[in-house]
Amino acid sequence: MYYKHHIFFCLNQRDNGETCCAQFQAQQAFDRCKAQVKAQGLSGAGQVRVNKAGCLDRCAAGPVAVVYPEGVWYSYVDLQDIDEIVESHLKNGEVVERLLTPPHLGR
Amino acid sequence: MYYKHHIFFCLNQRDNGETCCAQFQAQQAFDRCKAQVKAQGLSGAGQVRVNKAGCLDRCAAGPVAVVYPEGVWYSYVDLQDIDEIVESHLKNGEVVERLLTPPHLGR
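YS: structure for the whole thing
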């Protein structure tokens, strides 16, 4: 596995007025995650990659991010949630149960 | 696993003149993959998602795409390669060995 944890943030922006992750500070969340991962020395091959992504098609649960290869989906609310995902999951490998995306929520 | 196969294409564009995937028809490859997956009825929850992504940080091997949860990386050349990835990997679960990204190639 090239990256131990590869997290993708939906940063999709829509022009048609439909709700999307970008309206819920997804960019700020991505920036925070990237900065925290870097600050903790976790970034790079064999470690963690924080990635921009287009629509992940689970808009009803947004804003969302997904961590692979484990396939864990998060619905976060604020930047403290991001810090917790970094510390618990990306650093220590422990899923943050309270932020898990409800399985039935899709587009 | 929300998606059986979740493929991310690096569509990164750089302003500073550095080489990046977008210079090698990454957008066309993404479009082709998305269209083929849809045409074959493979798209959606429980099946396949074709996703845009920012820089995947393996520029030296670009243009690249990564398939999760299996963590298989591809360096493709043309649209026929994309068709083969769709048919072989995304449809039938068989990795396209000849297109695998060399493990040592990173940024």
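YS: worth flagging: Helices of chain B lie at 26-39, 79-91.
IM: good catch. Also The longest strand of chain B covers residues 5-10.
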